[in-house]
Amino acid sequence: MAVLLTGCETEVDVGKLNPFGGKKPVIPACPKVRMLKDADKITQYRPGPGRDITDIMFEADMVGFKGACEYIGDNGKYSSVVVTLKVGFKVARGPSVSGDSAKVPYFLAIPEFFPDDNAKQSFVREVKFPKNRTSVTVIDSEVEVSIPLDAYRRGPDTQVIIGFNLSPEQLEFNRRRGRDTILGE
Fold first, then answer.
1. Lowest pLDDT segment from 22-26, 64-68, 69-73, 124-128
2. CB–CB of 127/102 below 8 Å?
3. Distance between CA 179 and CA 185 in Å, rounded?
4. Using CA atoms, how far apart are residues 16 and 119, in angstroms rounded to an integer?
5. Among 81, 66, 74, 102, residue whose Cα is nearest residue 28
6. DSSP 8-state code for residue 95
7. What whole-number distance in Å separates Cα of residue 154 and Cα of residue 126?
8. Nearest C-alpha neighbor of 67 from the set 156, 132, 2, 158
9. Closest Cα partner for 69 from 87, 54, 83, 48?
């Protein structure tokens, strides 16, 4: 899965193709999108104090994303940029999962906007496990984030961060564990 945004244009001299002359306005590059280290993996335990392998409901890794951006405005003056992403996950069922699905919480955030409430959007992807399979790779449906632009905030200078919504305990677990593999590997 590509870890780059596509869909943005660069300046094109259409004067040679257009008998009326002129150039298209320069469309800036897309904002930078990246997965947040230590938040690109989640281990969800069943409620209660147990924290061994038999208490795991599911584990998931973000495996990548793909997307595009669209600048909103006229004649090279843009008021916002809309970033559209699809995030991919590999999810492994744990021994204590009940049922045939898991709800995987993740977010898109723009660090520049913190601590404003609009700095982060949360999503939940319900993942269904096929019969007799312990892991599945899925790509979520499109999610969008609109970033307002002005003289001081340009699209290419803005970062969009993707990660799982983790509790402090889960974040600490990821930092201690490092980059181990998920269940079933």
1. 22-26
2. yes
3. 13
4. 43
5. 81
6. T
7. 34
8. 2
9. 83
Q: Helix/strand/coil (H, E, C) string of 40-102?
A: CEEEEECCCCCCCHHHEEEEEEEEEEEEEEEEEEECCEEEEEEEEEEEEEEEEECCCCCCCEE
The owner of tokens 């994303």 is 65
Residues contacting 87, CB < 8 A, separation 6+: 62, 64, 65, 106, 125, 139, 140, 143, 162
Q: What is the residue type of 59?
A: E
CB 162, CB 34: distance < 8 Å = yes
Residue 142 tokens read as 């499109």
pTM of the model: 0.79
Number of neighbours of residue 116 by Cβ within 10 angstroms: 9
The residue behind tokens 């995987």 is: 104
Quick one: pLDDT at residue 21?
A: 54
Q: Which two tokens stand for residue 34?
A: 């990246």
pLDDT(129) > 60: yes
Q: Which residues contact 91 (CB under 8 A, 6 or more apart)?
A: 58, 59, 60, 102, 104, 127, 129, 135, 136, 137, 138
CA 173 to chain centre: 21
Q: Cα–Cα distance between 162 and 84 in angstroms, integer?
A: 12
Query: What pLDDT, in 10s, does the model give residues 25-50?
Result: 778 999 999 999 999 999 999 998 88
pLDDT recorded at residue 152: 86
